[in-house]
Amino acid sequence: MQFEQQADFRVLVDQYPRAIMIANKEPRITYVNRMFHSVTGFQPDEVMGESPSVLSAGLHAPDFYQIMWRSLIDNGRWEGMVWNRKKSGEIYPQWLSIYSMGSEGQRGYVGMFMDMGKRDGADARLASLAYYDPLTELPNRLLFQEFLKARVSQRAREGARLAVLFIDLDFFKSVNDLHGHEFGDGVLQQAALCIQSVVGKDDVLARLSGDEFAVIVELSGQDELNEVCQRMVQAFRAPIVVGDREYFLSASVGATVYPTHGKSGAELLQKADRALYAAKLAGRACFRIYSEIEDEQGRRAQQLSEALTTSLKTSTDEFHVVYQPQYDLCSGKVVGMEALLRWNHPEFGPVSPAEFVPLAERRGQIHEMTQQLVRAILSDLRSDPPDLSGKFRLAINISARQMTDARLHLVIGPLFARIREIGWVPEIEITETHIMQLSGQCLDSLRAFRDQGVLIAIDDFGTGYSSLAYLQELPVQVLKIDRQFISSLATKNRDSRIVSAIIGIGEALELELVAEGIETQSQYQELQKLGCERGQGFLMATPQPWQAVRATIVDSYQ
Questions:
Q1: Could you tell me if 459 and 433 are in contact, meaning their C-beta atoms sit under 8 angstroms apart?
Q2: What is the mean pLDDT of each run of 10 residues along the chain (558 residues)?
Q3: CATH of 3-128, one of 3.30.450.20, 3.40.50.720, 3.40.50.300, 3.40.630.10
Q4: Do 71 and 94 touch, CB atoms closer than 8 A?
Q5: Which of 219, 440, 486, 525 is most buried, by CB atoms within 10 Å?
Q6: Of the candidates 550, 488, 479, which has an alpha carbon nearest to the alpha carbon of residue 519?
């Protein structure tokens, strides 16, 4: 082509703000402008006559170029992002527009491009909208995935390692709900700076969506990933300042390593997301490096969570209640029972409450679960409940999350009315860990229940962090000693002393003691010696359906 030799053409093209490269149909480079050197580092005489592939980073598969050439043949143009290499060896994302052109019977191509990493012009900013997050000015998910593909390809050739970190801000939705989206945007910007302070200059940070960030971390040592993840979690211990307000935030982190956990960018990012889920299951504000065992547990938890949602809405017959009797340890008489919800799923079979109750709490479905519990108990109590003397009690477990839910009274009110109608005493059980964290409003709700004649019990006592000063202010009447202290009772002196101490605390605070998990005669006898009044466990009776437990408690009274 002759026009690139014309003076007017050269002046026009050399002043153009984007790099330009012209190639003939072979293709061989026949002309480059001044901006070409600024972007690539190559002088014109170093590339003239060379194939445009001299700039290639070698990161794209053959089908990528086949699609490019097909577009040029069919449409006369192609536009998109490619990964090329500068003279210095640096690999960078390049926004490239190629046009097919002809002059005097000759055909050739014009390529115009810019470095996507340098967005310092109006034209560059316009093109970068597709690849950068406007709020934080970080690469978005699309560009991050391109970076990740490039880094993985590099490491495959070099035999080096890298890590992918998936970062999620804990409970970020509450920031927008409480303070508005403008404040939330400020928090996201400060969170991005927080993460940036941890990663190195060669690492790549991106905002994937909402409050999700990801980082490509170059690894040089065996223990470096643990250190980076730990620093990432700790970076959020200090308050984030937005305007004149401080806000405390935490982050959960999931991490994967190339090539240990995956050999493609997509696989690494997917498994980092699963590791993040494991971190959230572990309580948030922590990190987890991908583990197949934890991944399997996480997948099961997700599958169960989805199944639980469906069952609670459409298959309530999958839920039923069993009752575990409580005994007076001196007389052997049944003096109460605990109602326990069970879930039998058609695919997963019987699911342990230790699995599905925490899932319901996390997904905000604990209210629907309590509805199923109450529905089943009321159905059982309609069929000729036994007439029992004394203060026979029926206990149900309530989540601390429900204590401020106005719907709780509407759901359990009819149950408590029926329990009183047949001459029994209603009881609420809340775990020690949860009751120690209750707000003043929650405690007021408990006091209201107590004033209405409902017994309040602390379940799993001994597993939390009770303050005795706080304990004596709680509106509780019963302590249930956790089964882990009962299991080795009469075989280990230390456990006997712990149970004796708990019984002493209960007596000092004028609280009734109930031992859980009694499975052997020696445990039963030791509890009698220590002065524990009540107990429940497989030694005396397993949890049973209504008809079976009804016969048990009637026989006990007879």
A1: no
A2: 60 84 91 92 94 86 83 90 88 88 76 78 56 88 87 79 94 83 92 93 90 93 88 91 87 94 93 92 90 82 90 92 94 93 94 89 87 94 76 91 84 94 92 70 86 90 67 86 82 74 88 93 91 93 92 66
A3: 3.30.450.20
A4: no
A5: 486
A6: 488
